[in-house]
Fold these 2 entries.
Entry 1:
Amino acid sequence: MTRRSLFVAMLMLAPALAPVLALAGDPKRDALVAEYAAQAKARDPAFTAFSPARGEALYRGTWSGGDPRTTSCTACHTANPRQPGQNAKTGRPIDPVAVSANPARFTDRATVEKHFVRDCKSVMGRECTALEKGDYVAFMAAQ
Ligand code: HEC
């Protein structure tokens, strides 16, 4: 096989491989989770692993200290993270946040960090901790 025909074959295979790759995880998402794990461990040496259950409690919980219009992540991302959401402040549509519905989620570090600062402040009146961020990603990756 020439290099060119190998390249063409890879392009043709890409759509077939996409669901498999989504299941296997994404290297950028994995790297971000590893970064949060190192931070969580540095803060609490007893840290062992992120928890989808804690992430779900964070997602569905009602918080105080933030904007009264948005006391929960569900205010914009809805009770079903596999469904599209709607910004409770601006009315603009939001793509689903679950990884199964949107495999690009949690792969762009700058975007993820921007929202963990902005959205956690909006809901909880503070930034999320590394433990909370990792738990949240673990929950969304399991959806
Ligand atoms: C005021 C509405 C609003 C609330 C409340 C909200 N978000 Fe968001 N969130 C957004 C918008 C808008 C985006 C960006 C649009 C998009 O990604 O489709 C976003 C995207 C994100 C992303 C980026 C994910 C990625 O990889 O693209 C993260 C992380 C996030 N939100 C976390 C949270 C968490 C955690 C909470 C609850 C503590 C929360 N959000 C509550 C509006 C909100």
Entry 2:
Amino acid sequence: MSKKSLKPGEKILFAVFGAFFVLALIGFVALEAVRSQMDEPMFTSRTSFTLSAEGRRGSELFRKNNCTACHRAMRNGTNHGIILDGAGSRRSQAWLEAFLKNPEASYAGVTIDHGLPPKEAAYVAQLPAQDLRDIATFLSELKAEQGSAMAQKPPEGSEGLARRLAHAWAPQAWKDKYPERQTPQEQAPPHE
Ligand code: HEC
């Protein structure tokens, strides 16, 4: 029986895959070694939730009605649509309820999935009003700490940087709309 040898191209391919595999393995072992020595968690969770009775019901409805096919909340679901962890720190219960019932009227931009049929999440607005209220309550109870990716405000102490960036890059229309987000110099009345 003749021994089959690999073609040069195959050798290169296997060597490259092998190198990636070995590197990934070393990285994983190193990461786990460092992590097992740490006293504090490597990544602190900056989102939290305290659910009321209605909120708990809403959370069940959220899963039953397949919202998790497009959204993530409480670490469940996908990243396909908007992540709803921390939603309650950005939106009020009333806004959320109004959006669920009448998405196109309360959304600033054009909606993709929520709205009238044949949009994929059109069924959401047709759910019983009480269910939508409880889901909105649930979402309003998902909070994000200041500084988390889900929070509106930048981390404590870095507001200065955010303001300087806004000063450098934001269009004039935005500056006129949000005067409170500007540097004190900009806010001061012009000298005459
Ligand atoms: C087919 C995918 C899909 C499904 C299913 C879906 N959503 Fe959405 N959702 C989206 C998309 C995309 C947006 C952004 C608005 C838009 O374009 O429709 C959104 C936006 C939202 C927002 C507004 C978030 C914000 O802060 O602007 C809420 C609240 C929401 N969805 C809740 C739900 C709930 C509750 C359900 C289940 C009853 C659900 N969604 C099912 C895709 C989906």
